[in-house]
């Protein structure tokens, strides 16, 4: 390890010094050439498996030595449900697995990144009727999931509300109906998506019907301003337009 000794890395004992621990152990791993296995579970193309395993073992050794012994159980066991009861069972972890376990246990989301992900969703314009809503919903759902998983930890019902807020103004009736008839705790992304797509189908059918009606122009009716008859319009008056009178006998 050259001039760098493992004890230059603080012992990981709490979340309050996790960021300092990460900075120092990462520096040692970079110096000793074993940082790669923390980032990737498998060797890059061209690297021998045995060489990669040596780096992985070295990284695991550093993580193990610089983690307080009362947390070693996190590095050698995993939680599983057995017969309806959650238990910890033995597990064989790679350096990356160990790193991820400790990050989950002690790490805190980067505030700037978490806010940035939420702003990415917030800055999306409202949905438009010029594109299928299914495609647009996919984008919005992905962004709000990213924000939630990135540190905001929104419940699914909260995520569903965010999606509803991005709907077109013409869907305000649907929004009012959903908010007044369904408890928030029952809201899910899948449920909101289904309701929106059903409403889009209804809007499409109504629009098509209105188009057909507008194209079917009623014939003008009486009274006729030319002859005074109440049975026809001036535009179809045979007295004014004798050429429109059907010829008798086919002549």
From TrEMBL:
Q: Which domain of life is it from?
A: Eukaryota
Q: Which organism is it from?
A: Pycnoporus cinnabarinus
Could you identify this protein by its name?
Uncharacterized protein
Annotated region Disordered: the residues are 203-222, 230-251
Return the Polar residues bias intervals.
Answer: 203-213
- Basic and acidic residues bias locations: 231-251
Q: Name the Pfam families for this protein.
A: Retrotran_gag_2 (PF14223)
């Amino acid at each position: 390890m050259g001039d760098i000794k493992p004890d230059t890395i603080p012992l990981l004992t709490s979340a309050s010094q996790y960021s300092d621990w990460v900075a120092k152990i990462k520096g040692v791993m970079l110096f000793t050439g074993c940082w790669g296995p923390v980032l990737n579970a498998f060797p890059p193309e061209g690297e021998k498996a045995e060489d990669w395993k040596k780096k992985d073992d070295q990284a695991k050794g550093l993580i193990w030595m610089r983690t307080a012994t009362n947390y070693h159980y996190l590095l050698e066991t995993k939680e599983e449900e057995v017969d309806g009861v959650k238990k910890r069972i033995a597990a064989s972890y790679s350096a990356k697995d160990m790193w991820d376990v400790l990050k989950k246990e002690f790490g805190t989301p980067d505030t700037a990144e978490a806010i940035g992900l939420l702003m990415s969703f917030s800055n999306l314009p409202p949905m438009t009727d010029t594109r299928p809503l299914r495609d647009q919903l996919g984008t919005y759902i992905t962004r709000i999931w990213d924000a939630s998983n990135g540190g905001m930890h929104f419940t699914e019902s909260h995520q569903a509300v965010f999606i509803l807020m991005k709907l077109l103004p013409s869907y305000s009736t649907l929004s009012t109906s959903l908010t007044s008839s369904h408890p928030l705790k029952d809201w899910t992304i899948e449920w909101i998506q289904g309701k929106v797509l059903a409403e889009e189908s209804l809007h499409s059918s109504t629009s098509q019907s209105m188009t057909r009606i507008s194209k079917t122009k009623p014939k003008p009716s009486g009274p006729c301003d030319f002859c005074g008859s109440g049975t026809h319009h001036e535009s179809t008056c045979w007295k004014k337009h004798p050429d429109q009178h059907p010829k008798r006998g086919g002549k």
